[in-house]
Write a structure and sequence with these properties.
Elements (H helix, E strand, L loop, with lengths): L15 E6 L2 H12 L3 E5 L2 E5 L4 E6 L20 E5 L3 H8 L11 E2 L4 E7 L5 E7 L2 H6 L3
Parallel strand pairs: 1-4, 5-8
Antiparallel strand pairs: 2-3, 3-4, 6-7, 7-8
Length: about 140
C-alpha cells in the first residue's frame, strides 16, 4: 500500500507488543499458560505468543543493544496493561490461581461493562483478563 500526495497514508497496524525480560523462558511459560497458545521460538532470546488478533513478543535483555543500548529495561513497566479477552474470566481465575505468586484477587465488574481479573506477570507487568458482561460491552467486541 502506498499513498499518493492526494491520499492519506494507510493507518498503522499494531502487530505486536514486545516485552523485554531477564528471564525469557519464564515469561514465555507464563504467557503460554495465560493464553493457552504455544510460543514460537526464533532464538533462545526471542519468542512470540501468537493470538487471533496480535502477537506478544518476548525478548531477552541481550536484544536491547540491537535497538540502542539502554532503550528498554526489563521489569520496569509501570504504565501499560496487557489485556486479553477471554470467554469466562471467572473460570480463568480458577485456572490461573496456582500460577500466580502471592495469590490472585477476585474478578471485578468494571463500570464500562467488562468483568476483569488483574494480575502481574513474573516481571511485574500488569495483565488484565476480561469478559464483556453488559450488552454494550458484548456488542463492542462483536460477541
Amino acid at each position: 500500500m502506498t499513498s499518493t500526495p492526494h491520499s492519506p497514508a494507510p493507518a498503522a497496524r499494531l502487530i505486536s507488543v514486545r516485552l523485554i525480560t531477564d528471564d525469557v523462558a519464564g515469561l514465555v511459560t507464563f504467557y503460554e499458560h495465560v493464553t493457552a497458545a504455544p510460543a514460537q521460538w526464533s532464538t533462545p532470546d526471542f519468542a512470540e505468543v501468537v493470538t487471533a488478533v496480535g502477537t506478544l513478543a518476548i525478548a531477552g535483555t541481550r536484544t536491547v543493544a540491537l535497538f540502542g543500548a539502554g532503550s528498554a529495561r526489563a521489569g520496569e513497566n509501570h504504565s501499560a496493561i496487557i489485556e486479553f479477552l477471554v470467554a469466562d474470566v471467572d473460570a480463568e481465575h480458577a485456572r490461573l490461581r496456582p500460577l500466580v505468586d502471592g495469590g490472585l484477587a477476585e474478578p471485578v465488574t468494571m463500570p464500562w461493562g467488562n468483568r476483569s481479573l488483574l494480575l502481574h506477570d513474573p516481571d511485574g507487568n500488569l495483565v488484565n483478563l476480561f469478559t464483556p458482561v453488559t450488552a454494550q460491552a458484548i456488542a463492542k467486541f462483536g460477541l
